[in-house]
């Protein structure tokens, strides 16, 4: 797995939040939210909730019987003429792909968007052996040319302006500068067409794998998934082991949930079903098909009852800023010490749970991880020693009535020089982290308990 650099996460996230380009890109994303709401409204609230419940039940069942469905899927892939590799970790997955590529003397591998390929770091491995991996999803292609990692599951190059992309194409593709999105897309399309024709291997992810038929289902909007699975002579599909679903008819549920949640579409432009390599009576398709089923820490997640639910995720990215489920999954896959900052990067407002098509309780999972971080060894903890002392002191005050009363009276007096128009609009360090972006209601001079006793004394009947 590529290095998880969450030690730098607090600094980098502050930097990103202060970046006007990122802010304006995120604002433009509101059209995704509106499209999603319209797509859901079209289905109707009742039917949408029914679909979400059904999707969740299917995932619950598949994950509870994962060993059975994975075996069934693997058997059916082999029956259809394909090959299967169960990879325990990223290294085993990369070794297998490399072995296939070297045996076919491959020089170019075209790829359609795959989060598992990001997870395994397969591009770096192929490059180090002289094999050229080329991303063919437009956003991923831009990110690859820029030497960066995807910004978002659904929209990987969301943070780049068209001017930045224009500069990038001039620099990397040696073309004339164009600034319209149509022209930039045409440049990428022309460059990629050449590569599609020459490619030796097509590598894709798998949105779902149907156990009863051994079918890989790939959902894309640019058609690059279909080109990657039909033009090269070899197709390798990479899947996380949680992607298996029992039956073909389950697709009737997920193909309604996924596009609506991800991009607000009724259906994505291309939905591709691949079952093994090309048969004798078929015109298109590869001669060889390989399915790599990746564990890489998912068994740990499966064994952990408190966090197992994260495996229900269908990677819709409905939560625009892509992070909540990543903040759950990454610490489990990469290890809590490496990713200890991530579970804290959420306000726990619950918006992600509200939109999740399979109703994953993400805030609860984040809280579980937070509690594990705080109970872990001191070096792994997120909070500084000062924050921990403050939390202990706070715990004592709020659980000790006399201390709570005294603190309330002291705060009511100490706040006086800081009050502006009845609210606390500025607090000294370190509390100014709060007031930099919001204010705070003033502390009441007469605490609620004192007021309540008075009311109760005045209305003794209501008291009983
Ligand atoms: S957790 Fe739910 S909302 Fe988030 S990406 Fe996964 S399926 Fe979508």
Overview features:
Rossmann fold; 2 domains; four-stranded mixed sheet; 22 helices; binds iron/sulfur cluster
Task: Describe the fold and architecture.
By secondary structure, the chain is of the alpha/beta class. The protein has two domains: 6-298, NagB/RpiA/CoA transferase-like (Rossmann fold); 385-463, no CATH class. The chain has helices at 9-17, 20-28, 30-43, 45-64, 66-79, 90-103, 115-120, 122-128, 138-146, 162-173, 181-198, 224-230, 251-263, 298-303, 323-334, 351-355, 362-375, 385-399, 401-414, 432-435, 448-458, 460-463, and strands spanning 83-87, 108-111, 132-135, 201-204, 208-210, 215-220, 234-240, 244-245, 270-274, 288-294, 419-420, 423-424, 440-441. The strands form three sheets. It has a six-stranded parallel sheet, with helices on both faces. It has a four-stranded mixed sheet with strand order 8-5-6-9. Strands 11-12-13 form a three-stranded antiparallel sheet, with no helix packed on it. A hairpin with a 4-residue loop joins strand 5 (208-210) and strand 6 (215-220). It starts with 8 loop residues before the first helix and ends with a helix. The mean pLDDT is 89. Iron/sulfur cluster binds next to helix 16.
């Amino acid at each position: 797995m590529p290095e998880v650099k969450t030690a730098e996460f607090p600094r980098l996230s502050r930097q990103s939040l202060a970046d006007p380009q990122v802010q304006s890109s995120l604002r433009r994303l509101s059209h995704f939210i509106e499209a999603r709401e319209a797509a859901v409204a079209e289905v109707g609230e009742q039917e949408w909730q029914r679909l979400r419940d059904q999707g969740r039940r299917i995932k619950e069942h598949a994950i509870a019987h994962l060993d059975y469905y994975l075996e069934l899927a693997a058997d059916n892939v082999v029956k259809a003429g394909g090959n299967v590799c169960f990879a325990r970790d990223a290294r085993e997955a990369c070794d297998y792909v490399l072995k296939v590529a070297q045996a076919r003397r491959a020089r170019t591998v075209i790829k359609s968007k795959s989060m598992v390929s990001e997870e395994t770091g397969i591009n770096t491995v192929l490059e180090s052996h002289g094999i050229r991996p080329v991303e063919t999803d437009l956003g991923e292609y831009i990110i690859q040319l820029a030497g960066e990692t995807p910004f978002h599951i659904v929209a990987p190059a969301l943070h780049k302006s068209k001017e930045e992309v224009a500069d990038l194409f001039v620099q990397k593709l040696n073309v004339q500068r164009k600034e319209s999105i149509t022209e930039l897309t045409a440049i990428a399309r022309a460059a990629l067409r050449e590569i599609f024709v020459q490619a030796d291997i097509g590598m894709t992810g798998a949105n779902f794998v149907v156990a009863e038929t051994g079918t890989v289902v790939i959902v894309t909007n640019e058609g690059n998934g279909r080109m990657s699975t039909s033009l090269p002579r070899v197709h390798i599909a990479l899947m996380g082991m949680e992607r298996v679903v029992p039956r073909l008819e389950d697709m009737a549920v997920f193909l309604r949930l996924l596009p609506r949640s991800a991009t607000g579409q009724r259906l994505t432009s291309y939905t591709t079903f691949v079952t093994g390599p090309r048969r004798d009576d078929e015109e298109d398709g590869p001669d060889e098909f390989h399915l790599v089923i990746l564990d890489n820490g998912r068994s740990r997640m499966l064994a952990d009852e408190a966090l197992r639910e994260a495996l229900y995720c269908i990677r819709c990215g409905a939560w625009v800023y892509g992070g909540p489920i990543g903040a759950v999954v990454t610490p489990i896959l990469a290890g809590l010490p490496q990713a200890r900052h991530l579970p804290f990067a959420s306000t726990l407002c619950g918006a992600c749970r509200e939109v999740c098509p399979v109703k994953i309780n993400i805030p609860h999972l984040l809280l579980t991880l937070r509690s594990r971080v705080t109970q872990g060894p001191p070096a792994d903890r997120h909070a500084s020693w000062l924050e921990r002392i403050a939390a202990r002191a706070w715990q004592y005050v709020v659980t000790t009535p006399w201390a709570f009363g005294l603190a309330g009276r002291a705060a009511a007096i100490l706040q006086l020089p800081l009050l502006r128009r009845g609210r606390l609009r500025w607090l000294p360090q370190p509390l100014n982290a709060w007031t930099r972006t919001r204010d705070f209601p003033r502390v009441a001079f007469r605490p609620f308990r004192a007021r309540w006793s008075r009311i109760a004394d005045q209305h003794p009947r209501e008291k009983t």
